[in-house]
Design a protein that fits this description.
The protein is built from 4 helices and 7 strands; from the N terminus they run αβααββββββα. The chain is an alpha+beta fold. The termini are far apart.
């Protein structure tokens, strides 16, 4: 189901001034190969430590408007989210967004060719809805997510470069 323009606008408003976690790494693989791998949710549990299980997603890159259900873990909390692809520029940019009872988030990937490899950047914007968790968003939660994201990118690099 395609995310409506109104839903996209509401999500953007909810993420205004939200904490951001940005991680980047150089991977010695072509941008197209990295894009195909990271935009295939069926592979996420192989490289991202938060992902526990992915449902409702084919084993291929998702395109604009497609959705998936992810079960994940963050800071000891087990959560699930229905993500919708909101940006898809093959081999360059890909983004997903969610709005759950626990919070809102947007994850975007930017991939650019560098020599024979590429630079992969992952950006996560998030905001908790429950006031107590929201108090922790800008410090403890962001710190946990930064470490988790850095670990994910190191695992992604090792996995793809071993191919």
């Amino acid at each position: 189901m395609l995310m409506t323009k109104l839903a996209q606008r509401n999500l953007i408003l909810k993420l205004e001034a939200a904490p951001v976690v940005t991680s980047a790494i150089t991977i010695a693989r072509p941008a197209a190969e990295v894009f195909e791998f990271v935009s295939t949710p069926a592979y996420w549990s192989r490289w991202h430590p938060a992902t526990r299980l992915v449902h409702d997603a084919p084993e291929r890159p998702l395109v604009l408007g497609e959705t998936l259900l992810e079960h994940f873990s963050v800071a000891g909390r087990r959560l699930k989210a229905r993500w919708t692809v909101c940006v898809c520029e093959p081999h360059k940019r890909w983004a997903i967004a969610t709005d759950t009872p626990h919070g809102v988030a947007r994850i975007s990937y930017q991939i650019s060719a560098e020599g024979t490899g590429c630079r992969f950047e992952r950006k996560l914007q998030f905001r908790s809805k429950f006031w107590l968790w929201r108090l922790l968003d800008s410090n403890l939660t962001r710190w946990v997510l930064e470490h988790q994201s850095d670990r994910a990118l190191r695992r992604l690099k090792a996995l793809l470069e071993a191919r």
